[in-house]
């Protein structure tokens, strides 16, 4: 069972007041029905089907016909088709005449909830990036959904994908806020647990990558310093360095893998020469300058 399926099931099992139910059903029918001489609604989720069937029957005083089909493409699953043959014009006028007047936050959230039940999808937070979308046929409908989402500061955007228009949210915090608005507590906990785990894992990976990069930088720096020391030794240039630099050279040869900060700490503890990282760096810059001047003179 996908995360989207679990979320829709949880939403469909929540209690709603009469105003919320009407907004949910209106949004669901507006975006997930085919209206001709009859109204046809196709649903893949049994729990959502029960919810829609129950409240369509109550609100419009009709008896929808239920057809169950088995789809075998890719995987076997049941498809539920609701057909309404009564009061079609009456229902059509209500849901297609114009956009509903959603005065309160409660109505706006209920309309988004019904839209999500009909045309919404959310990616599995465990296996992919964060993405929640509404798939619509008309650009004006996509913009209307985006407007409702952005009323709640959910950073929704609209794009065209083939012949469809997609209203989507990418930020994990915004997806979490929308699930919270839907009052889907179990799905919210699952989403948040996964988000916390992934964020922690990403932070650990970044720290590891940073540590590896620092280690590589330290090794490269140590090799360069040892190469400079060897050049001075091979060309009898160590007579040009003072006593403090000689200490630094001897300890670098003794500890070829440590960072400059660690080398400074070791020298400060084991000798009378108290030096910091910047002092060590100064010595090796001077060492490099001696090498460069000698190469220049040779040239």
Descriptive tags:
single chain; about 300 residues; alpha+beta; Endonuclease I-creI; 2 domains; four-stranded antiparallel β-sheet
What is the structure about, briefly put?
With 299 residues, the chain is α+β, with helices and mostly antiparallel strands. It folds into two domains: 3-183, Homing endonucleases (Endonuclease I-creI, Roll); 204-298, no CATH class. The chain contains eleven helices and eight strands.
User: What is the structural class?
Assistant: alpha+beta
Low-confidence stretches: none
Q: What's the tally of helices?
A: 11
- What's the rounded overall pLDDT mean? 88
Question: Numbering strands along the chain, what is their spatial order in the largest sheet?
Answer: 1-2-4-3
Largest sheet: 4 strands, antiparallel
Tell me the number of structural domains: 2
Can you tell me the CATH class of the largest domain? Alpha Beta
Ends apart, CA distance between termini: 74 Å
Specify the helix fraction band: 55-70%
Please state roughly what percent of the residues sit in beta strands, choosing from under 5%, 5-15%, 15-25%, 25-35%, 35-45% or over 45%.
5-15%
**Integer-rounded radius of gyration:** 34 Å
> How many runs of DSSP E, i.e. beta strands?
8
Q: CATH topology of the largest domain, anyone?
A: Endonuclease I-creI
SSE pattern, N- to C-terminal: HHEEHEEHHEEHEEHHHHH
CATH architectural designation of the largest domain: Roll
- Shape field: rod-shaped
What do we call the CATH homologous superfamily of the largest domain?
Answer: Homing endonucleases
